[in-house]
Amino acid sequence: MMKDEITIEQLADLPAGTYRLVDVRNDVSFQYGTIPDAIQIPELLEMAKNAQLSDDKEYILFCMHGTQSIWMAEYLQEQGYQARSLSGGYSSWLAKCYAVEDKHEQIEQGLRTRGFKEKLFSKFAKAIKTYEMLSPGDRVAVCISGGKDSMLMVKLFQELQRHNKFDFELVFLVMDPGYNDINRMIIERNAKMLGVSIEVFETKIFDAVYDIEKSPCYLCARMRRGNLYAKAKELGCNKIALGHHYDDVIETTLMGMLWGGQIQTMMPKLHSTNFEGMELIRPMYFIREKDIMDLRDKNGLHFIQCACHFTDTCSSCREDGSAASKRMETKLLIEKLHETNPFVEANIMSSISNVCLNSVISYKKDGKVYSFLDDYED
């Protein structure tokens, strides 16, 4: 450990009120989960440079792994402040301090309360009914990535199975594409905490795409999807369920326009083109991310955010300080637009169901391009 660092154990011994615990990651990472009592200080370095920070307490800084917080602590010291970096960062806290408790009954009861039932379970059931996602006799592989969305999907499926009028089977499937030890541990701890028996299988996908310079995320996603289909089919499943929610859908729609130059969206269900008889469903299609976060926070849960070799530092530990992905940039853009238009999310979602072909220059269907000129004279 470096002199500018402090361990989790040493932090626990500091007298209360003598320090400020500061999460230096970006807003999105902070919202995914942080250490209890941690705060954010926007423009921390600029405030330190201009002597605008209070100097009555020590600043304990942390990021995901301690890569960025160490030099930020050194900078604060240079400006005359008491500051240290938390050794190992948030991931170290998760490994050492995140207690494994049995919370499955607590969460299940929470899902039945009026507020969460309306915001989560009812919308889950509505998506399944609206888009005809389940049929009697289905065997569904509920795919768990380790994040908050897929973990909640597990509990919603269990609740649906308890209420449903026809039989279907569930397999809770975890693919390990090369997680680091901490992320693998968090997934297993949370599964135990939520009362979920998981089926884990390992691949080397992260290693396979690590040296790919062009579109590694696209290739990684395709390989992960293919491996999930293959394993699910091997286990006798005819469907895989992914935990994409309402906000994922609208972000994907806007990303396609801004970064991909096309209008397309994330479909509620899809037939597999490579695995005959297999289907992908997204039963959280109508659920808002903020409501998932609310359930998480009320139950004191912590999940992994992004576990790949490129961005498992949650962007705050990247040397260039850039956003981890275009999705994050789009998410922040939508948040900004919401400040002046509170209906922006609903309007984006509505637009994908209200496409007027009479006012579209051209469109594609089954690989064929159709132009408004095709029948313009008619």
Describe this structure in words.
This protein folds into 2 domains: 5-97, Rhodanese-like domain (Oxidized Rhodanese, domain 1); 104-298, HUPs (Rossmann fold, 3-Layer(aba) Sandwich), CATH 3.40.50.620. It has 15 helices and 12 strands. It has helices spanning 8-13, 27-32, 44-49, 67-78, 89-97, 104-111, 114-130, 148-163, 181-193, 205-209, 216-234, 246-258, 289-298, 326-338, 344-351; strands at residues 5-6, 19-23, 58-62, 83-86, 139-144, 169-176, 199-202, 239-241, 269-271, 279-281, 362-365, 368-371. The strands form 3 sheets. The chain has a 6-stranded mixed β-sheet, sandwiched between helices. A 4-stranded parallel β-sheet has the order 1-4-3-2. 33% of the residues are buried.
β-strand number? 12
What structural class should be given to the helix and strand makeup?
alpha/beta
Mean pLDDT equals 88
What's the architecture of the largest domain in CATH terms?
A: 3-Layer(aba) Sandwich
CATH class category label of the largest domain: Alpha Beta
Portion in beta strands: 5-15%
Count up the helices.
15
Tell me the distance between the termini. Answer: 76 Å
Helix content: 40-55%
Low-confidence spans? 311-323
CATH topology of the largest domain: Rossmann fold
Rg measurement, Å: 23 Å
Strand order of the largest sheet: 7-6-5-8-10-9
When the domains are counted, the total is: 2
Globular, elongated, flat, extended or rod-shaped: what is the shape? Answer: globular
Order of helices and strands: EHEHHEHEHHHEHEHEHHEHEEHHHEE
